[in-house]
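To the wet lab folks,

You asked to see what we're planning to order before we commit. Fair enough. Below is the target structure as C-alpha cells, and below that is the sequence we designed to fit it. If anything looks off to you, flag it before the synthesis order goes out.
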C-alpha cells in the first residue's frame, strides 16, 4: 500500500494503491494526477530520489519542498525570517520585515500579515519557540546556538536575539535568520508531548505540515511528489509579493538515476533541473543562468580532505605535492563538463565579495597554476620521500599508498578523483579510488576512516567564506577521536595560528585588519594544505527548460533573482516572474 495525502489530509488506501500502479489518483480538487494541467504544473528533478519519508522542518534528510538549515533553505512549505541572495550577498525580508543590530544583539520586526496555512497569525512567540526547539533538540540547526545566548519576545511582532559574548559571530547569527524555518508554537507543543528530547521531533514524519509557505503537500507516493498552491497564501499581500506564485502545482517525479532525469528533461517533462547534466549545451530548450561557459554561478568549492592522522599524509609536503600536481583544466572539462572556471588555489570563491577580502597580489608567490609535476616532485625529494623499485615513494618504512573516496554515482566527483589518482602516479604515489554508497562515505568522514575523501565545505551564505574556513581548518570544536565529527575538519588538522585567526575573523569589523587576516589564513592554507580545492561548483545546478514555462531568471536580466531553482532562498521570487507558454 502506498501513502496518499490529499488537501483534506485523509489517507485513502484504495486510491493510493491505484496511484502507485500508475493508473492515476484523484486530488482534492478532482484533478487526475496522471494528467495534471501541464501549463499549471512546474516539474523539478534532482531533488528527490525516493518516496518522501517526512515533511519535517527539523529533519535534514531530503524531502521535496524542504531543505532546512542552509543559507538557501527552500521556501515552498515553510519559510524563514529572511532569504539570502547569493548574487549580492544580502538578506531580504520574507516573514520578517527588518532586522537591526545593537551591539551584540539583533532586533527583528515581523510582517504583521503573515499567517500559517491553518489561518493562525504568526507571532513573536512562534519565532522564539522555533529557535528554542533547535536548542532543546539535537538538530542540524542546534549549531547556531553556539553563537546565541538567548531569543526573547519584545512584543507580539518583535524578537530580540542576543549574541553570545564569549563566541560572538554576527554572520552566523544572520545565517540563522535565513536558514531556520519558523513553525507554529501551538502545533509543535502538542507534537513535543509524545516526541521528547533529545531527538524526538526530528523523527516525527509530520505528514500534515502547517507552514507559512505558498505550497503544501497534495499527493505523493514512491513515484512522485506533488505540492499544491495555497490560494490563501499570505504572501499575496501588497507588503510582500502582491500576488500568488504562477504554478498551481509543483511536482517531482522520482527518477532512478541522472540518465533517467536527463531523458525526462529532453522530453520536456522537467522544467527545472537540479542535477548534473553533462554537455548541457546539447539539450534542446535547455537554458542556463549564464548562456556560455561556465554556465553556472559558483557557490561551493569541492575539495579533497587529507587525513592528517595517517602516516605520509601527516607531512604537509605530501599534501601540497598532490595539490600542486592537480590538472584543474582536466577536472573542469572532463569532470565538470566545463561548468567551472579554472581554479586558483585559495580558500576563496571567484566572486567579488570574497575576492575583496584578500590581497591577491601577496598570495601569488605561494600559489601554482596546476600540473606543476616537476615542482611537486622536487618538494617530495626535498622532504626525503624516495622512490622504491616499484616507483612508489617511501620514507622510514612509510609507503605513499592511499585511497581516495567519494560516493558511487556522483559522476563529476568520481571523475575528479580519477584525476587525483593519475596525479599520484606522476609523483610516485599509489592512489586508488573508492566509490562506496553515500551512507558509507558519510560514516567514513564522521569517524575518520579514510585517507583522502572528497567534500564540499561552506557554500554561499551570510557567513561565507568564514564558515568554509571554520569547517575546513578550525580544530577548536572537533570531538575527540572515536566520536562522530560533524564539525567539518574531518582530517583533524591542527594549527594554533589558524584557530586564532578564524576566531578573530568571526567578529572583526576593521576592513584593513579583516583583509590582513584573510590573506594570512590563505598563506597558511597554501603552505599546509589540510584540504585542496578541485573546482568551483554551483550551489545548485539551475537548468531550466523553456518548452512549457518562460521567464526564468538569467544573468544580468535586471531581476536580481539568483539561479537557485526557483525555490531556494531569494530564488523563490522566480515563481512570481515565470508564466506558461501555452
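Sequence we intend to order:
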Amino acid at each position: 500500500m502506498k501513502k496518499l495525502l490529499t488537501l483534506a489530509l485523509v489517507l485513502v488506501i484504495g486510491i493510493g494503491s491505484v496511484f502507485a500502479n500508475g493508473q492515476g489518483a484523484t486530488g482534492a480538487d478532482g484533478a487526475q494526477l496522471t494528467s495534471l494541467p501541464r501549463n499549471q504544473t512546474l516539474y523539478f528533478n534532482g531533488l528527490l530520489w525516493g518516496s518522501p519519508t517526512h515533511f519535517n522542518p527539523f529533519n535534514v534528510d531530503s524531502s521535496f519542498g524542504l531543505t532546512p538549515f542552509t543559507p538557501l533553505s527552500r521556501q515552498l512549505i515553510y519559510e524563514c525570517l529572511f532569504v539570502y541572495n547569493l548574487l549580492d550577498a544580502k538578506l531580504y525580508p520574507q516573514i520578517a520585515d527588518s532586522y537591526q543590530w545593537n551591539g551584540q544583539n539583533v532586533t527583528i520586526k515581523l510582517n504583521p500579515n503573515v499567517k500559517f496555512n491553518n489561518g493562525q497569525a504568526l507571532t513573536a512567540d512562534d519565532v522564539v519557540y522555533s529557535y528554542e526547539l533547535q536548542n532543546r533538540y539535537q538538530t542540524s540547526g542546534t549549531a547556531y546556538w553556539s553563537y546565541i545566548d538567548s531569543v526573547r519576545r519584545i512584543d507580539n511582532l518583535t524578537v530580540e536575539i542576543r549574541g553570545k559574548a564569549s563566541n560572538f559571530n554576527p554572520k552566523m547569527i544572520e545565517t540563522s535568520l535565513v536558514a531556520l524555518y519558523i513553525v507554529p508554537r501551538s502545533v509543535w507543543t502538542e507534537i513535543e508531548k509524545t516526541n521528547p528530547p533529545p531527538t524526538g521531533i526530528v523523527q516525527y514524519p509530520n505528514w500534515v505540515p502547517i507552514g507559512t509557505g505558498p505550497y503544501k503537500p497534495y499527493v505523493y507516493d514512491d513515484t512522485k511528489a506533488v505540492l499544491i498552491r495555497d490560494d490563501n497564501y499570505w504572501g499575496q499581500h501588497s507588503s510582500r509579493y502582491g500576488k500568488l506564485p504562477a504554478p498551481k502545482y509543483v511536482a517531482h517525479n522520482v527518477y532512478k538515476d541522472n540518465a533517467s532525469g536527463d531523458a525526462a528533461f529532453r522530453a520536456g517533462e522537467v522544467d527545472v533541473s537540479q542535477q548534473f547534466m553533462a554537455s548541457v549545451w546539447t539539450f534542446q530548450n535547455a537554458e542556463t543562468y549564464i548562456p556560455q561557459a561556465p554556465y553556472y554561478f559558483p557557490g561551493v568549492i569541492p575539495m579533497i580532505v587529507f587525513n592528517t592522522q595517517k602516516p605520509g599524509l601527516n607531512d604537509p609536503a605530501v599534501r601540497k605535492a598532490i595539490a600542486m600536481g592537480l590538472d584543474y583544466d582536466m577536472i573542469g572539462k572532463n569532470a565538470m563538463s566545463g561548468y567551472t572556471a579554472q581554479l586558483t588555489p585559495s580558500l576563496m570563491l571567484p566572486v567579488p565579495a570574497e575576492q575583496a577580502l584578500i590581497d591577491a597580489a601577496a598570495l601569488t608567490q605561494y600559489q601554482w597554476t596546476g600540473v606543476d609535476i616537476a615542482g611537486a616532485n622536487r618538494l617530495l625529494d626535498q622532504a626525503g620521500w624516495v622512490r622504491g623499485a616499484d616507483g612508489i615513494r617511501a620514507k622510514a618504512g612509510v609507503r605513499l599508498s592511499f585511497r581516495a573516496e567519494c560516493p558511487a554515482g556522483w559522476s563529476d566527483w568520481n571523475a575528479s578523483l580519477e584525476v587525483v589518482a593519475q596525479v599520484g602516479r606522476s609523483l610516485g604515489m599509489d592512489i586508488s579510488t573508492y566509490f562506496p554508497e553515500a551512507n558509507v562515505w558519510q560514516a567514513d568522514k564522521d569517524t575518520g576512516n579514510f585517507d583522502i575523501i572528497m567534500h564540499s565545505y561552506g557554500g554561499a551564505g551570510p557567513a561565507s567564506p568564514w564558515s568554509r574556513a571554520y569547517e575546513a581548518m578550525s580544530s577548536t570544536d572537533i570531538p575527540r577521536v572515536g566520536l562522530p565529527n560533524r564539525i567539518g575538519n574531518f582530517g583533524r588538522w591542527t594549527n594554533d595560528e589558524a584557530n586564532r585567526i578564524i576566531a578573530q575573523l568571526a567578529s572583526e569589523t576593521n576592513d584593513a585588519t579583516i583583509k590582513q587576516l584573510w590573506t594570512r589564513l590563505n598563506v597558511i592554507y597554501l603552505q599546509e594544505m589540510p584540504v585542496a580545492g578541485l573546482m568551483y561548483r554551483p550551489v545548485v545546478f539551475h537548468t531550466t527548460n523553456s518548452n512549457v514555462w518562460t521567464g526564468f531568471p538569467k544573468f544580468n536580466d535586471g531581476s536580481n533573482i539568483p539561479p537557485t531553482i526557483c525555490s531556494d532562498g531569494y530564488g523563490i521570487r522566480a515563481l512570481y516572474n515565470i508564466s506558461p507558454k501555452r
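Structural context that might help your review: The chain has three domains: 34-51+214-296+541-582, 67-204, 298-538. The chain has 16 helices and 24 strands.

Thanks,
Computational group
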